[in-house]
């Protein structure tokens, strides 16, 4: 089975990729497109061009593969320093730029959005706490890496993490509505990315800069 989604963040093959990463990349697309329970170890091994018996030399089972996929491919853990490269240390300028860049990366990886749905629907959020803690760590690193000028660093990390995750779920909802529109005759009801960002930034600004919940 080939990698089907040309827009996936991980669909570019690397000649030097390890067997482990080949398995995780193959499983990532299968899990996100078919779901966890509908995907077999045989399908994963076939997609990774590996014998099933050989696959068990690298992973103890399908759930271990799933855990590896989450750590490598889940959108919350794919936050890179390059998102904040233009930052000059001004939090008021950095927040909307960061969120817009982050949202754009999430939208460009629909498989990542669907992987989150697999976690919520098939695993009842079993790994959400682990994913969120990892996401907070990424946010903390980016803030400290850019030496942003704000006396309350810890509240900023917490509030920005919460706001970014809420934005993620708004984008996920938008993605789901797009799928509904494809199979129904309903009118177009989803928001485009620019509208989502413009609406959301105002709430994020208020929450972070005023250090209390967003306006009703």
Give your account of this protein's structure.
The protein has two domains: 19-72, Orthogonal Bundle (Arc Repressor Mutant, subunit A), CATH 1.10.10.60; 74-210. Mean pLDDT is 78; it is low at 1-16 and 212-216. It is globular, with a radius of gyration of 19 Å. The protein has nine helices and no strands. It is an all-alpha fold and 216 residues long. Helix 1 (19-34) crosses helix 4, helix 1 (19-34) packs across helix 6 and helix 8 (153-183) packs antiparallel against helix 9 (193-210). The longest helix is centred in the last third of the chain and has 31 residues, at 153-183.
List key phrases describing it.
216 residues; mainly alpha; 2 domains; 9 helices; globular; disordered C terminus
What does this entry show, briefly?
The protein contains nine helices and no strands.
Number of domains: 2
Helix count? 9
* Average of pLDDT: 78
- Main pleated-sheet profile: none
- What radius of gyration results from the CA coordinates? 19 Å
Q: How far apart are the first and last residues' alpha carbons, in Å?
A: 48 Å
Strand content: under 5%
Order of helices and strands: HHHHHHHHH
* Net shape: globular
Structural class: mainly alpha
| Residues in helix, % | 55-70%
Task: Please count the beta strands (DSSP E, at least 2 residues each).
Answer: 0
Low-confidence stretches: 1-16, 212-216
């Amino acid at each position: 089975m080939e990698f089907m989604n040309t827009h996936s963040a991980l669909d570019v093959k690397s000649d030097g990729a390890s067997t482990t990463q080949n398995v995780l990349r193959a499983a990532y697309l299968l899990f996100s497109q078919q779901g966890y329970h509908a995907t077999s170890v045989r399908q994963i091994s076939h997609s990774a061009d590996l014998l099933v018996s050989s696959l068990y030399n690298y992973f103890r089972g399908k759930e271990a593969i799933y855990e590896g996929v989450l750590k490598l491919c889940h959108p919350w853990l794919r936050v890179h320093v390059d998102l904040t490269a233009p930052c000059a240390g001004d939090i008021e300028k950095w927040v909307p730029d960061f969120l817009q860049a982050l949202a754009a990366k999430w939208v460009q990886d629909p498989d990542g959005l669907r992987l989150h749905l697999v976690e919520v629907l098939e695993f009842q959020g079993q790994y959400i706490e682990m994913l969120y803690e990892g996401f907070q760590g990424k946010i903390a690193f980016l803030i400290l890496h850019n030496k942003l000028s704000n006396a309350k660093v810890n509240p900023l990390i917490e509030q920005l993490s919460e706001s970014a995750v809420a934005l993620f779920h708004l984008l996920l909802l938008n993605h789901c509505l797009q799928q509904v529109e494809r199979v129904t005759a309903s009118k177009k009801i989803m928001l485009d990315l620019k509208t989502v960002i413009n609406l959301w930034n105002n709430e994020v600004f208020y929450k972070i800069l005023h250090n209390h919940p967003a306006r009703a």
